[in-house]
Specification:
about 300 residues, mainly beta, 12 strands
Length: about 300
Amino acid sequence: DGEDEALLVDGTNNILYVNKGETAFETIIGNDNDEAIRVDANGVVFNEDGHATNDFRIESDDHSHMFFLDSGLNRISVGDTTNDPAATLELTNHASAGAYNVPLLQLNSNDVDKFALDINAANTTANVIDVTAAALTTGKALFIDHGASHTNAQGSIVGMHYDFDKTGVCAATTTQNYTGSYISMDDTVTNNSAADTLVRMVGQVIDVASSNTAGDIKNFGLRLDVKGGDKNYGIEITAGNHLVMYNPDNTADSGEIKVGPEGEMTISTTDADTKKANIILKPDGAVIIETSSAPA
């Protein structure tokens, strides 16, 4: 038995029914590009024949292509764009109208033991995540706001964890180099506008502070654990003034360690006023100096 109300016009309620009996009746809407829309027991299918020119577009109040599927390019765009989608999924907002004044993408994860974002990349030469931000002033290219309101005992709570595991065996006569975190900052301007211009670039800033004075408070700006190699270096520095330390109350008071030609090491101190900036050693034992040869 077929559907006897496949197409029904309810003039009283101004309703046009297709498959009013909700049976296994199939509805197919075609165009000159073959089948456009199919409704059957499996659901709704757009472009069942996979025609390259059967695009799908949803228009909003301000945007003609709020949702656009380009069948020929096999890509989707969402938001304020009428161009060909530039990625498998492209999101574009507007600067001042329509799709604007809200985040371009927001993820709200309420499943406490599942990833909010899971990326599985087979990349070899292309970046897995690539951020270009050339107009920043007070904004950040990446900002993570990680808080903690625990009142009970907690283990090590980590804000950012990079886990690298080397599993390949290094073949004979080969060299392998791996870097966990790399910061590259280049001032490509060849001349500043005035002689009194100050340009300061800092590769990494670590700010750790505690307001609580009760209990035993220990803060570490940097902790290094390097082991297992033939030589283990906690810090390797190549710079003009290799290590400069400032007094937190007066940054004009400083101490400096510098390595020059032939490995010559210079330790110097600077005080902002007329006082002497002494070097004080307080070892829990003797101070032993061993030289491999007599002074030149």
